[in-house]
Amino acid sequence: MDADMAVLDTAEQLFYAHGVHTVGMDDIRDGSGVSLKRMYRSFATKERLVTEVLRRRDVVWRDKLATYVTQATADPTERLFAVFDWLHQWFGEPGFRGCAWINMFGELGGGSPDVVAQARAHKAAFRSYVGDLVAAAGLPPSLADHLSLLAEGAMTTAAISGSSSPAQQALDAARVLIRSAGEAMAP
Amino acid sequence: MDADMAVLDTAEQLFYAHGVHTVGMDDIRDGSGVSLKRMYRSFATKERLVTEVLRRRDVVWRDKLATYVTQATADPTERLFAVFDWLHQWFGEPGFRGCAWINMFGELGGGSPDVVAQARAHKAAFRSYVGDLVAAAGLPPSLADHLSLLAEGAMTTAAISGSSSPAQQALDAARVLIRSAGEAMAP
DNA sequence: TAAGGTAGAGAACGATGGTTCTCCGAGTCA
DNA sequence: TGACTCGGAGAACCATCGTTCTCTACCTTA
Asked: Strands (DSSP E) along chain A, which ranges?
């Protein structure tokens, strides 16, 4: 449905920019041009709309990252660096306000098991993707945890500080970790 | 005022556990036993109460960390490790739900410059503290950024995954970074 | 053209929550 | 004791918001 897409687009943008609670269904109607009646036919409740937004965003977000990394370089180790390049680019986008899952976890996590599950799944998928890249580079699995932590830290630090330089700092740290891990494996 | 303390205690606990929006002033009244009238005399608005909670928590949180680190060891480098030990301990506390500033930034950051400022100040103070420890250990300043990112990443990852092991992973990564930085300085 | 069904605009409803007001009891001071 | 002040409990007020309902216009089909 075209209208459903418009609703999801508007909801995602407004939720991300202002948080879930402060955005009313009326705001989403106004932004999308879709009537309340129609919205409620596709999304029975606001909570359902939230989870649909997160579900779609998860696919899109990880696809954008993977596409960028794949096209950036074919070298397995360089691909790990490319993850942080992509973060840097993302942080610099206008309206960047951190990771949507972290934000929604903070806002709704206390009362919404669905949001907790989505956040957990999204973060697990990201870590798993980094794990694939690490394995492809022939590096030890624990490195995936370390690089993921750097990436997560960069996201929140960039959001709160309003700067994209945490991506660069995370990349610097990642270089050290990757080099050390490589030396440890093949000294 | 004793009543003010009770209000702040209750508000902090409820806000942290459930988020700001879902906690009503009535809930804080019920939890603290302080009447609404009295609460509004000390805290003119709910938003003010939120910022007072954050202000007090900032002092307490950083003091707990610094006290732990100071008492853990006198060795400058070991003190850097102690930061992550403390995080591990914190993550394991019952009711742990991540960093209050990150959570509130996610929930209110879009509409509350005060909360943004508090989160920014708190994170800057933490980074600065790590910077002091790094300097005391005679290590390069950029290491402070790297270790801070690991710590931030560990906080959100621990919160979302519901596990305290990210602190251990961050400690592992920190060991590598610190060793590398030490070798680079005095090879 | 007439009947019927669909969809949208917007009002309405019910609940919630921030903030204020009212009323009443208790303590105080002359 | 009596007037006065203070503070608390809780109702009241007002706005917001999720959700539903109504009414009307339009489209379809015979």
From this structure: none
